[in-house]
Amino acid sequence: MNAHDLIKDVIKEKGTIKTVYWVACGGSVIDLYPAHCLINAESTSIDSEVYTAREFKIMAPRKLGSNSLVITCSHSGGTLENYEAAELARDRGAAVIAMTNNAGSRIDNGEWPCWVYEWGNDVPTAQIPSGMSLSLAAELVNEQDGYEDLDTLMAAIGQIDGIVAAARTKSVADMGDRFAHMCKEHDFLYILGSGPNFSQTYGFAICSLMEMQWQNCCYLHSGEYFHGPFECTEDGVFYFLQMGSGRFRPMDERALDFLKTHTDSLMVLDLLDYGMSDVAESVRDYLDPVVTYAINCELRAERGKLFDHDPDVRRYMGKVEY
Description:
Blueprint: H1 3-14, E1 19-24, H2 26-42, E2 47-52, H3 53-58, E3 68-73, H4 80-91, E4 95-100, E5 114-116, H5 129-144, H6 150-185, E6 188-193, H7 198-213, E7 216-221, E8 238-243, H8 249-262, E9 266-270, H9 284-307
Parallel strand pairs: 1-2, 1-3, 3-4, 4-5, 6-7, 6-8, 8-9
């Protein structure tokens, strides 16, 4: 499967798409968020919305219908909420595209197109949800409105793999040991970011640290930081700032300027230090999260080594009723 053909088929069937709904849970909805941002920033005819799958089922948008496209991702393929959301969308006349790592799973059942992907550090970004979803969004915008940066984005998706590989190695050397020890010294941390990259601010908190490391933490938007949360800033409070490389960077820089003078416990992941300056400026924002995710994985692994806590260990997920 590929994004170009999938979108061509959707347009052929539906004529016009007015609204795209990105529907998933946890790490999967995180991967879809930058594509949602791309559509709202670049399209004149399509609205985009992101839903956690259970909310989508409980309070489905009234405008969900024959001019809607629902894109859902279930890494395991067995997430009931995703299947029910896709089923609801189909029953309401919407086009549905699913993505999964598990061929033949509940979500890959022949009821709708399902793009099955491989997983691992060596799989190209173009062939995992973060790249696949961007490709789907860009192809849809191009079909309906024309997207002048389509080729630029596709080239950047191919380029990002080399940047990611270098960033993994460099981030461990630059930050790995210090991040792990900062977690040892602080029971809690705040993580800040903005724009499409905020998806990985959220993801680093809820998936990499809370789920995989049992580390108490909180995600904050760099802009919203100044509308209340900055009152908690003081020496001894650990802040981890993820600075984007694109148009949202001024929000992150404003937070940095304040944090540098109001806490002695600050770490900064600046994506301009990890190769993003080599990516075309017009599409950087959408690919920042790919590099941030790779670095976050390395940092959680370094923490796991110091704490003797394998990131695959769970105490509740998949083990108890919930």
